[in-house]
Amino acid sequence: MIVTDEGKIHKIVQWTRNGDSQSALLDIFDVTPGEPIQAMALSRVHGSLYAASDRRVLQLRLALCARRYDACVRCARDPYCGWDRDAGVCREYMPGLIQDVANETADICDSSIARKSVSATWGQSLHLGSFVKMPEVLQPRAVTWFHYSRDKGRHPITFNKPEKYIETSEHGLLIIAVTEADAGRYDCWLGGSLLCSYNITVDTHRCSPPEKSNEYQKIYSNWCHEFEKYKTAMKTWERKQEQCSRQNDSNQNTHPNEIV
Fold it and tell me: Burial level of 173, CB count in 10 A (0-12/13-18/19+)?
């Protein structure tokens, strides 16, 4: 663990390979924002790190697995965590879980990669999630998307054409108005590790206008159903935003791990 004058703790893993010491940054915690950390103590008995500034003492669990990692490629690097391939979650390490602290096995997480098949209609917009949760300070790490198509083969997705591709704040990929050319496989990579893969098929035949009244009724019913789902999702989002706002107001001068 390394601390900064801004109250941040850098979680770093170290290992030895061929006699050389190597390290990697795993996570960054904003423990005492704006307050320098004056002292730290590690308790193996309680599995925690204690950090103190001039005004407070805080406890930070060493195994914050599910709360910090939602992808095998990051979870497996933490010596306190391991990836449960059956449940698809990061857990506190125990034998049988996937772990590769020194990053010695490149394909160790391949069996846990999310692979999905998606069918889209011509002109529809698609959102492909990256399945990776990273703190803001680690987001500059390269997350890249590749498209495998019949005509072009493997080529990287670039975001200099926002009318076609948009990168979301969580490194997902938004494809605008899909056509036949957008069909194929899409892979998302974090550095040299594959995060997820999608196989997209574009159904152009479903684009023709309905010819019978019952087809019109079915389409109208489907649109009404989607609109109701959208309204429900918006209400849920607004309710959560209101709850977060109230919680932030009540916790403005406290820290969730502060020891009173």
Answer: buried
Distance from C-alpha of 218 to C-alpha of 93, rounded to nearest angstrom = 50
| Residues in CB range of 12: below 8 A, 6 or more apart | 1, 2, 23, 24, 25, 26
In 3D, which of 58, 63, 60, 13 has the Cα closest to residue 38? 58
Q: How far apart are CA 138 and CA 8, in angstroms?
A: 13
pTM of the predicted model as reported, rounded to 2 decimal places? 0.60
Residue type at position 106 = A
- The count of residues in the chain is 260
Integer Cα distance of 186 and 144 in angstroms: 10
Question: What pLDDT was estimated at residue 260?
Answer: 45
If one counts every other C-beta atom within 10 angstroms of the C-beta of residue 176, the result is 15
pLDDT in tens, 60-77: 888 888 888 888 888 888
